[in-house]
Amino acid sequence: MKIIYADYRESKDFIDDNTFVYIDPPYRPLNITSSFTSYTENDFSDKEQIELAQYIDSLSEKGAKIVISNSDPKNSNENDNFFDDLYKNYNINRVKANRMLNSKANSRGEINELLITNYK
Prior knowledge:
CATH superfamily: Vaccinia Virus protein VP39
CATH class: Alpha Beta
Distance between the termini: 23 Å
CATH architecture: 3-Layer(aba) Sandwich
Helix content: 10-25%
Shape: globular
Number of strands: 4
Structural class: alpha+beta
Low-confidence stretches: none
Number of domains: 1
Strand content: 15-25%
Number of helices: 2
Mean pLDDT: 86
């Protein structure tokens, strides 16, 4: 096993058909007030989400098994198909997740998150 800490784009040379890849990017905000989109000073906007999806496509073509997690925009807007469209060629699983951190106690609780895979 090899764990590499780097920008995700630097991992491509290490990935082949014997690789399992889990990607947990900054989640897309569910609303205006949930604006955490970066672990560093650089934002992770929809543009970066699209670039990541293109990168994931290239890893999938190499035969790697891939799992991506993200927020489910349908929690706040049932018509928001951003990830459904972006990952239309993948398996999109909506899973329940408990949210214990929120400044408003009545907003804590169960929501859907996405687990997107390139395998069944």
